């Protein structure tokens, strides 16, 4: 988490609380008596931190100090607080002459501030465009930190705060569901009204929702009327015609939220003023690089004439549609640079080319799940667990419910749990089922049972400055596994190492080759590559074990002994490159998708200690409830059709009754990892 220590120490303002982020709402507007609605604002998200003496600090959503830039807002609430400290969450906005929020005017004001700060560092900034702070949450009042209070409680306290000058600071109007019903106004009609008034859409906030700093929560859902996307500027083109000699357009990228890969998502050439084109050109020239920064080769015809840059400038575009097959923004228009967000915010949007299925309110990584449907209490071992929404369909195509997910994990536990023991767990949760929003959950969520073991490990992220920590759950018994399944954690991912007392991260004990078929190839081609890997690994004194990924590919493991965390990656890379040289028509060792056509990519990078891989016997969040399944080498050699190595939950439960656990060989056959 980014921090702002200097401001806090200098003025005595309360500590910054990193903002909670909203999750995208489904195309069908979220409705029900448990929801309160607010207009979605179009400005700069900012925390207003006020000391007992009235000193004020403004902090952006990524921890940057905005106090000097918006000094006119400092002290506007001090008189009403009567000596109490406070931390408010809200938005800094500018209104136009028609009383509409005007983001473009705010951006232009920021441009003037940057020039002022460069020419007159340290001098006060005065601008004719007035700004206003619109508060929508109260996170601290006096000595009370309120983040663990329900939203409805925080909102009531916020509305009681005096607003001495409502033209400079005020509270965003809230529309509880019962008030709309009393006025015979539907939430959809409210959305239409706020859209006509120039707002971006509606926010739906759960009455009982807690505030989860620095996390994206589903107790807040955003329903925009227009789509806005954070992007990374990855290149630019020279202008033509009237724009000759200026920047013509930008080539954009965003990160795949599942893999972290930077992908090309199209370009934008409209929405710039001439001044903005000149300013952007000046900003990009020093960032020049020889090659594109994307994980896969972008289409040549779409990037012809591009001048590539390091992807560090974050911007924002409006767009009409996003297509996920070939990830592209359609009809994009530039909105401006966003210094108040981080690179981690520029992730692929959900596809808008077809509506997603309606969804019920779900929970966030640290949030207790809002109650939808019946709850029951069951005894699992020596623990009592509260299970909910057991009839909720998590695999719509197969009609596979949460109850069936829990049943599968309960019955597979004897062979699954030994492969999870001692390994920090990363869950991929599907609260609305496959096809709905999914998210990675590394931290043990708020509300996790006190008996659940966790391990605190250091973690470095692009969203933090320096080193942070994560409290990973450890799933080592049946109650913990059932608890995870009840969270709709369909996928369980683990690293290739375990933790010991301390906690101490032990050296890797598994070597992994992830065989991923490119376009035109299938798991059949992976099986042929796996046979060659088997020969080499066996010759090197290792005992390879195979399992399906549960998706399209195969994964080959070997139990190893090494004291060097970097050695598995080095060994795997050398071996992958060897196979790519021996059979270039069959194997590729480089990640670019354009090189994988009709070939198998050997992903050796999965041995990086920072990466995790799907656990054996884990379900996958695919169309059907397929499972990452350990298989015999006889099955690998016999594979001639892709469907030969596809196993569903029912298939795997039958297999473990009839066959041994092939993955158990890893622990019994560990051998020193040779160097290549």
From TrEMBL:
<dbReference type="InterPro" id="IPR012340">
    <property type="entry name" value="NA-bd_OB-fold"/>
</dbReference>
<keyword id="KW-0436">Ligase</keyword>
<feature type="domain" description="ATP-dependent DNA ligase family profile">
    <location>
        <begin position="124"/>
        <end position="256"/>
    </location>
</feature>
<dbReference type="InterPro" id="IPR033649">
    <property type="entry name" value="MtLigD_Pol-like"/>
</dbReference>
<feature type="region of interest" description="Disordered">
    <location>
        <begin position="349"/>
        <end position="369"/>
    </location>
</feature>
<dbReference type="InterPro" id="IPR052171">
    <property type="entry name" value="NHEJ_LigD"/>
</dbReference>
<dbReference type="GO" id="GO:0016874">
    <property type="term" value="F:ligase activity"/>
</dbReference>
<dbReference type="InterPro" id="IPR012309">
    <property type="entry name" value="DNA_ligase_ATP-dep_C"/>
</dbReference>
<dbReference type="InterPro" id="IPR014143">
    <property type="entry name" value="NHEJ_ligase_prk"/>
</dbReference>
<dbReference type="Pfam" id="PF04679">
    <property type="entry name" value="DNA_ligase_A_C"/>
</dbReference>
<dbReference type="Pfam" id="PF01068">
    <property type="entry name" value="DNA_ligase_A_M"/>
</dbReference>
<dbReference type="InterPro" id="IPR012310">
    <property type="entry name" value="DNA_ligase_ATP-dep_cent"/>
</dbReference>
<comment type="similarity">
    <text>In the N-terminal section; belongs to the LigD polymerase family.</text>
</comment>
<dbReference type="Pfam" id="PF21686">
    <property type="entry name" value="LigD_Prim-Pol"/>
</dbReference>
<comment type="similarity">
    <text>In the C-terminal section; belongs to the ATP-dependent DNA ligase family.</text>
</comment>
<protein>
    <recommendedName>
        <fullName>DNA ligase (ATP)</fullName>
        <ecNumber>6.5.1.1</ecNumber>
    </recommendedName>
</protein>
<dbReference type="InterPro" id="IPR014145">
    <property type="entry name" value="LigD_pol_dom"/>
</dbReference>
């Amino acid at each position: 988490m980014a921090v702002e220590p200097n401001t806090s120490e200098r003025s005595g303002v309360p500590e910054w609380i990193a903002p909670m982020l909203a999750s995208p709402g489904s195309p069908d507007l979220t409705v029900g008596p448990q929801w309160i609605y607010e207009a979605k604002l179009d400005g700069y998200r900012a925390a207003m931190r006020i000391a007992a003496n009235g000193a004020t600090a403004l902090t952006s959503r990524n921890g940057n100090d905005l106090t000097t830039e918006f000094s006119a807002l400092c002290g506007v609430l001090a008189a009403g607080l009567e000596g109490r400290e406070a931390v408010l969450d809200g938005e800094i906005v500018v209104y136009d002459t028609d009383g509409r929020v005007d983001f473009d005017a705010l951006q232009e004001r920021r441009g003037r501030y940057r020039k002022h700060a460069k020419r007159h560092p340290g001098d006060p900034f005065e601008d004719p465009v007035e700004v206003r702070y619109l508060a929508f949450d109260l996170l601290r009042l006096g000595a009370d930190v309120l983040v663990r209070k329900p939203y409805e409680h925080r909102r009531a306290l916020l509305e009681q705060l005096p607003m001495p000058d409502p033209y400079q600071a005020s509270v965003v109007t809230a529309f509880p569901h019962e008030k709309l019903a009393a006025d015979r106004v539907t939430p959809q009609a409210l959305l239409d009204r706020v859209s006509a008034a120039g707002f971006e859409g509606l926010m739906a906030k759960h009455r009982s929702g807690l505030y989860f700093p620095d996390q994206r929560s589903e107790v807040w859902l955003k329903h925009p009327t227009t789509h806005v996307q954070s992007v990374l500027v990855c290149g630019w083109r020279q202008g033509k015609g009237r724009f000759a000699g200026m920047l013509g357009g930008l080539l954009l990228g965003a990160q795949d939220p599942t893999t972290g890969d930077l992908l090309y998502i199209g370009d934008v050439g409209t929405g710039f003023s001439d001044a903005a084109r000149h300013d952007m050109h000046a900003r990009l020239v020093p960032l020049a690089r020889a090659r594109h920064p994307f994980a896969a080769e972008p289409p040549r015809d779409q990037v012809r004439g591009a001048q590539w840059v390091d992807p560090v400038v974050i911007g924002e575009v409006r767009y009409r549609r996003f297509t996920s097959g070939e990830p592209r923004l359609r009809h994009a228009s530039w909105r401006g640079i966003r210094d108040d967000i981080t690179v981690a915010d520029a992730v692929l949007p959900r596809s808008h080319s077809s509506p997603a299925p309606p969804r019920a309110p779900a929970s966030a990584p640290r949030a207790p799940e809002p109650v939808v449907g019946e709850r029951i209490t069951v005894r699992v071992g020596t623990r009592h667990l509260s299970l909910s929404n057991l009839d909720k369909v998590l695999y719509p195509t197969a009609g596979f419910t949460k109850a069936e997910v829990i049943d599968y994990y309960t019955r597979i536990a004897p062979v699954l749990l030994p492969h999870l023991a001692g390994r920090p767990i990363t869950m991929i949760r599907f609260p609305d089922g496959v096809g709905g929003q999914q998210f990675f959950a590394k931290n043990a969520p708020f509300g996790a049972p006190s008996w659940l073991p966790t391990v605190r490990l250091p973690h470095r992220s692009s969203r933090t400055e320096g080193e942070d920590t994560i409290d990973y759950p450890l799933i080592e018994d049946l109650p913990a596994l059932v608890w995870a399944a009840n969270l709709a954690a369909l996928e369980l991912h683990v690293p290739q190492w375990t933790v010991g007392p301390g906690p101490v991260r032990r050296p890797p004990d598994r070597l992994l080759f992830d065989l991923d078929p490119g376009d035109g190839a299938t798991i059949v081609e992976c099986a042929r590559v796996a046979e060659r890997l088997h020969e080499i690994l066996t010759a090197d004194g290792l005992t390879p074990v195979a399992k399906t990924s549960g998706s399209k590919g195969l994964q080959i493991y070997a139990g190893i002994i090494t004291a060097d965390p970097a050695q598995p990656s080095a060994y795997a890379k050398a071996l992958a490159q060897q196979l790519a040289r021996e059979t270039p028509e069959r194997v590729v060792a480089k990640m670019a998708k354009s090189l994988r056509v009709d070939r198998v990519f050997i992903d050796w990078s999965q041995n990086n200690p920072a990466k995790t891989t799907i656990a054996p016997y884990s379900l996958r969040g695919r169309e059907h409830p397929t499972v990452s399944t350990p298989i015999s080498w006889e099955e690998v050699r016999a594979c001639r059709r892709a469907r030969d190595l596809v196993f569903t939950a029912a298939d795997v439960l039958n297999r473990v009754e009839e066959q041994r656990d092939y993955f158990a060989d890893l622990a019994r056959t560990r051998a020193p990892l040779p160097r290549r």
